[in-house]
Write a structure and sequence with these properties.
- Pathway: Lipid metabolism; fatty acid beta-oxidation.
- It is found in: Peroxisome.
- Monomer.
- Pfam families: 3HCDH (PF00725), 3HCDH_N (PF02737), ECH_1 (PF00378).
- The chain is of the alpha/beta class and 654 residues long.
- It is 46% helix and 14% strand.
- It contains 26 helices and 21 strands.
- Strand 15, helix 15 and strand 16 form a beta-alpha-beta unit.
- The longest helix has 21 residues.
- It is globular.
- The mean pLDDT is 94.
């Protein structure tokens, strides 16, 4: 015979019901059960009742819906802390006088993971996941995560989770000992209740692989590139093996509070909120996108293949078209190679692999695109080629289907004007490799309907990309700013800096690689061809640096030729005296007396060039917001996210 009591509301986000001597506490703070003040207060009130009740012998905590707890409440970011704090809650859980089991029904992230590991045991469903992504916001876990996790699982794995912010799926969590039992959703609460009626298991800190720990530490430090949070995460996990728990928790809290108020954390919070805003532009509020089910992609080179793989990953049916049967076969093989790599790496299981293969249709004629709801062209960046393609599609796809150009520099207004239905033409500027890079600039032309633009956003969001709204200008947002940044770097060469000095200053700032090293890796000939095309229309009064052209004229096309801005000996990048002399000659020709620049002066000039162009884009309405510009530069051009982007660095958000 069961015994139960009515459900009790302990706050507007916490309810509990007592049945068969177990209190089941449910966190219900949609959409992701974030740990708000209401959640913390309600949990403490429920625990107060459980602690003093003779009827209650065990406690289970779970989340409503499909999420356990996905972290802190972002509405409280930057606000004064309201008690009880999360460390107070997790301390209460860990030292509670009755067994508490976390029934983890979905994602347990950040503070949610800290709540789960503070409980005396964890039962999880197959849909559960665990992660502590605080380093991605310039923080470390601040409610016991850095101290309790390395005592629960091997310290090397704990370091990997905390230091990189990566998430574990349920099976990996079970193998690691992070969860005690894995069950299906229907049995989750029953299993957790049963576990709560048993004495809490005594746990011994597991042994770990010291060499593996050292390797993971080295990798985190190498990738940190000026970020402080990953370094502090490493320090705290190391302290968990040296101090007792109470001392470790004290150190963790002190470091968490220092990081919370740091410039790094402020910059990363800016990026976090900017992404949320960018995905829902004000211009599209209340606008419904078209229902897109079938995607067409014309052109199956590197860019087109990457777009197709992204679309298959998102569950779309895709029609890929090339101009010849031979090119179609080559593109098809390129796509299959990417899918097979995803299968081998575990990003895709066998069932998903077969499903994606079946969802792809390859054709050698445009007529195959007739059923497509949206067609993205990824053909050669030539106006006549693109305009003729869209004119042909006017006769093939239905009038309501959307046409998206992937041009980098051409004017989408002109491409749209060449079609019968210009209102359905938008730009979708993907970044290569398109199946890896997050950024997509969604371009609204002077003709585009809001429904067409909204559809581009909806597709980009489904592809798990970061869509940024842009108006029409040469290079849109990203390439427009990048061009200004590149020009200023070349002016610096003439003014006295050398390529390795500029690159070193950029890497010191937090870029993964300096500008001239990136040029060499990408190859210099593509940009050279573009400059030659533009030469006839270039204003002779504007300052122009021809050093890059001279390198190409000498056959120095970068790493592939062993010579570019640098020379490469057995793949190793080295300063080349030929380039140094070429730069010196350019200065002599213009009667420029070279100056010496500090790394800070180099950084400042390059930042100012980006900011000036960004301000111009805002003034002309090309960019909707300064934060959009920051996101483009971070996600498309390697600007360090922990600096917040060039506009944030200018103090635009102070």
């Amino acid at each position: 015979m069961t015994s139960s009591h009515p459900s009790t509301e302990f706050s507007d986000t916490i309810s509990a019901i007592v049945e068969n001597h177990v209190m089941l506490i449910t966190i219900n703070n949609p959409p992701v059960n974030a740990i708000s003040a209401s959640v913390r207060q309600g949990l403490m009130a429920a625990l107060d009742q459980a602690a003093t009740s003779d009827i209650i012998q065990g406690v289970v905590i779970t989340g409503a819906g499909s999420t356990f707890v996905a972290g802190a409440d972002i509405k409280e970011f930057g606000q004064p802390v309201t008690e009880p704090t999360l460390p107070q809650v997790t301390e209460r859980l860990a030292n509670f006088n009755k067994t508490i089991i976390a029934a983890v029904n979905g994602a347990a992230l950040g503070g949610g993971a800290e709540i789960a590991i503070a409980c005396h045991g964890r039962v999880a469903s197959g849909k559960s996941s665990f992660g502590m992504p605080e380093v991605k916001l310039g923080l470390v876990p601040g409610a016991g995560g850095t101290q309790r996790l390395p005592r629960l699982i091997a310290a090397d794995l704990a370091l990997d989770i905390i230091g990189t912010g990566r998430t574990l799926k349920s099976t990996e969590s079970l193998a690691a000992g992070l969860i005690d039992e894995l069950t299906d959703e229907d049995n989750l609460i029953v299993c957790a209740k049963n576990a709560s009626l048993k004495p809490a298991a005594k746990r011994v800190t597991p042994h770990y692989d010291a060499q593996k720990f050292a390797n993971i530490k080295t990798g985190i430090l190498r990738k940190s590139r000026g970020q402080n949070a990953p370094l502090k995460a490493v320090e705290l996990v190391e302290l968990s093996q040296q101090l007792d728990l109470s001392q470790g928790l004290g150190q963790e809290r002190q470091i968490f509070l220092q990081l919370r108020d740091s410039d790094e954390a402020k910059a990363l919070r800016h990026v976090f909120f900017a992404e949320r805003t960018a995905k829902k532009p004000a211009m599209l509020e209340g606008v419904s996108p078209e229902d897109i089910k079938i995607l067409g992609v014309v052109g199956m080179g590197l860019m087109g293949s990457g777009i197709i793989v992204s679309a298959l990953n998102a569950g779309y049916q895709v029609i890929g078209v090339e101009q010849t049967e031979e090119a179609a076969l080559a593109g098809h093989q390129r796509i299959l190679n990417i899918l097979e790599k995803n299968l081998q790496s575990g990003r895709l299981n066998r069932e998903g692999f077969e499903r994606q293969k079946k969802a792809l249709i390859i054709a050698g004629t445009l007529e195959s695109l007739a059923p497509a709801d949206l067609v993205i062209e990824a053909v050669f960046d030539d106006f006549d080629v693109k305009a003729k393609l869209f004119q042909a599609l006017d006769q093939i796809v239905r009038a309501s289907a959307i046409l998206a150009t992937n041009t980098s520099y051409l004017n989408p207004n002109d491409i749209a004007a060449a079609t019968i239905y210009p209102q359905r033409v938008i730009g979708m500027h993907f970044f290569s490799p398109a199946h890896i890079m997050r950024l997509v600039e969604v371009i609204h032309t002077s003709h585009s309907s809001l429904e067409a633009v909204a559809s581009g956003f909806a597709v980009a969001n489904k592809l798990k990309k970061l869509p940024i709204l842009s108006g029409v200008t040469e290079g849109f947002i990203g390439n427009s700013i990048f061009s200004a940044y590149r020009r200023e770097a070349e002016f610096l060469l003439e003014d006295g800096a050398l390529p390795h000095e500029i690159d070193a200053a950029l890497e010191d700032y937090g870029f993964a690689m300096g500008l001239f090293a990136v040029y060499d890796m990408a190859g210099l000939e593509i940009a050279w061809a573009k400059r030659k095309r533009e030469a006839l229309n270039r204003d002779p009064q504007l300052r122009y640096v021809k050093i890059a052209d001279q390198l190409c004229e000498l056959g120095r096309f970068g790493q592939k030729s062993g010579l570019g801005w640098y020379q490469y000996t057995q793949g190793k990048r080295e300063i080349d005296p030929v380039v140094t002399e070429l730069i010196a000659a350019a200065r002599r020709e213009k009667n420029i007396t070279p100056q010496s620049f500090t790394k800070e002066q180099i950084q400042e000039r390059l930042l100012q060039a980006m900011q000036a162009q960004g301000n111009l884009l805002l003034q002309t309405g090309i960019a909707a917001s300064a934060s959009d510009i920051d996101l483009v530069m971070i996600n498309g051009y390697g600007f360090p996210s922990h600096k917040g982007g060039p506009m944030f660095a200018s103090g635009a958000f102070d």
